[in-house]
Design brief:
The structure holds two protein chains of two kinds. Chain A is of the alpha/beta class. Helices cover about 50% and strands about 15% of the residues of chain A. Chain A has a seven-stranded parallel sheet, sandwiched between helices. By secondary structure, chain B is α+β, with helices and mostly antiparallel strands. In chain B, strands 6, 7, 8, 9, 10, 11 and 12 form a seven-stranded mixed sheet that branches. Chain B is extended. The chains are: A alpha/beta, B alpha+beta.
Chain lengths: ~600, ~290
Amino acid sequence: MNTLDPLPSGMYPAPETTGAAAIADVSAPPPAEAPARFIHPLVELRFDRSAFEDLERRVQRNGPWDDWTMFRLAREAEEAALVTDFHELQCLRALPAFEPMAHQVDTARRVLHEMRGRAILADEVGLGKTIEAGLILKEYWVRGLVKKALILVPASLVLQWVRELGQKFDLPAVPQKRLHSWQNDIVVASMDTAKREPNRQILLDNEYDMLIVDEAHKLKNKRTTNYQFVSQLRKKYCLLLTATPIQNDMGELYNLITLLKPGQLGEEGEFNSNFVKGRREAKNEDKLQENLGQLMIRNRRSDGGVQFTRRFVTNVPLVLSPEEMALYEGVTNYIKQHAYAENGDLASMLSLVTLQREVCSSRDAVFLTLVNLFKKTAEDSPLRARIWELVELIRQIQANTKAEKTMELIQGIGDKAIVFTEYRATQEYLLRFFREHGLQAVPYRGGMNRGKKDWMMDLFRRRAQVMIATEAGGEGINLQFCHHIVNFDLPWNPMRVEQRIGRVHRLGQTEDVKIFNLCTLGTIEEHIVHLLHEKINLFESVIGELDDIVERLEREESWERRMAKMVLESEGDEDLRRRMDSLGNTVLQARGRSREEAGRT
Amino acid sequence: MNVRQVQKFVLAYLEATGSQLIEKSPNHITVKLSPEADRALTGRPFYWSFIDNTGTVPETMTYSWMFGKSPPPQAGVPATPLTSLLTPSGRVSREEIYFGSRRLNQFFDAVRQTGRCVTLFEEPPRGVRDPLRSAPYTAWLGVNFKVGYECDMKREELYGWGISLATGIIDEKFFERLDQAKLSPRLPPNIHLLKNGISLRKAMSQLEHALERKLKTSDFAWAEEAEERRREERKRIKGYYGPQLERASDDPDQSAALQARMRQRLEEIDWQYRPRVGVSVVNCGIFHLPGLQ
């Protein structure tokens, strides 16, 4: 009964139009029959009479008439939703069971009132950039200033964003799946999808009241299609999120800021002469910081206010059984000999090092790799016999020392624990092993789809004492209800170790986190634990501190490759230890420098 | 809106739509929706078009609504606001309703749709009237206006004004006055309606003009500040593109591209900052009230 006739077009454009109409308002003069009324020399006044026109029509047709209760409730609804103040944050009273932290609210306020909705959010990892962006979006949403928003994030984070906005902010965000998804009010999409045709054109033809780009440091090069695409998008408010401190490269910094506010740091020539001393070095630091402060917010852990619980790290040394040790020695010898024989094919040499690491994990892991290697080796190759000898050694192994120790550990913990391993085969083995010993465990791995991952997390929370995970990175595995981590084997890359711990040791964790590293003595594992724990002191360092350092080192050569080369090139344990120490020193020096920098800003 | 107000609002809506309360406690209700409420709230257009086309008896949804925030969920536990449980009487969906929740916003949208236009009569006080004399009634146009002051920020005001269609007198507290009155959609006996002196449309224009006069007297510092910001932003953008345009002056292609980019940036700035005031009619109606005004 309330279907309305279409409005006479152009007569009384509703003031609450979408961005598209709003931008049309300023570029094209309104139709002649409705001359713009000015209520103040600067301020145009528009009337939207559509409800009144509805009344006139109903008078002519003698009804139908609405209910008086509904009429009054409608006014009550408007009163309740009314934004009575320019400044007071409305979103805070409209948030469901979730309390943002002080620095997040403060950030939202500054973006809204000082930066006018265009900002770079550059908090350190784990301080809740997503929450800040959500608060800002929600505020504009409640005020009716944003009706259409586009959120561009890495593909792996799309669903996490959608869920976060839905659960924490009750915002109707949808993931982009098909072409018609773009019609929704709040769409979350991956940058790669968005910039591909036909999506690209659809988005460029549209207008967005708000654009949010996560991992915005990937937009640092202005020649890339990503950069140009984001630059071309029509947007009113815009948030760029990045955890990487962008001050490290002056050119990149300039590009990112130009995306947001062209001219904020002057025209390119001015910028270069005013602020740039070298590629990584600024001059007039104070002035630059002041300028940046007008559109960038970087909260740091060291600012206080955010309390993390403590971490306790225990290395659990183990002695392999003679059979296991025999296998380890066998594999090590094989690698040494083979590596010399191979003569320079680095890629296949590196893959050999994996074998060595796998032996430290479980015979199941190494078995699979050996079988594959056997198949790949030419039939007449003498290596085949050698490989087969190793497989024979595997047969000798009756028990897994590490698994037994882990079992013992978990029983001692008597609480929920997450066990991380690098290898699928080890994961399968542990699941079987635990089940045989009456311990409930659930698996978690990268290849599972979203639904299954959620299901596993749920099972872990409600039923199982143990989760065995092969993947720590990626999205959405937040396990604050658990505070024990067992590293069954360690990744070589400190970033990946940090990701593992980060699943549990994050905002919302109320207990101190206990980390156990299993470490088989006399193996390569001992070296890794030494480097990561004793040398870099990774486990107890400030979260996020190493990200940047490792990333910079990786620009030259990947971390894993560096380590593998060391293992192959070293002439013995002593030598390997020395080489690892020197890599550790490089990291420590870089950390010292970055702490100094942090102290200055 | 506090918890109690939310609850009162929801109950009033459910009663007005004829929904059937099954359970009620201070903190929750369980309700079987009426067809009207179901259409407005459950988002099942396909179901309802099926019912309408086939004439099947509809099976409306049953909800259990909890008012107020429940304690924050444990960290890491995804807060699923919706769970459903099976009861002997069918599936019941459980939800929390609080100010800001999507469900309450749906209620808001529903009443905006179904509380838009009315024609009502005030009931004469009982027993005191002379049954032989007919009481004179005047028609009023009552309008709830929502005024939005907008730049890169926004603020709103509500005005519930009425204008007599007989005399053109404007009452700025019209709806407050009506809160005390008993109104009914039926014409009461023994009354007569005065002839309208002005047309509905004219009355509306007069209301709008009066409102405009009132708004003109408000403080426009916010607009001047916004305009200042807009100018500054434009200056910044021109300062950025200006030198580039000069350098590209002998390359028409690049020059055009730069022009286009600059224009887009300038449009974005206008879109963001230009101060404006929008007045929209929330709802309105014709009210026949006793008296000669």
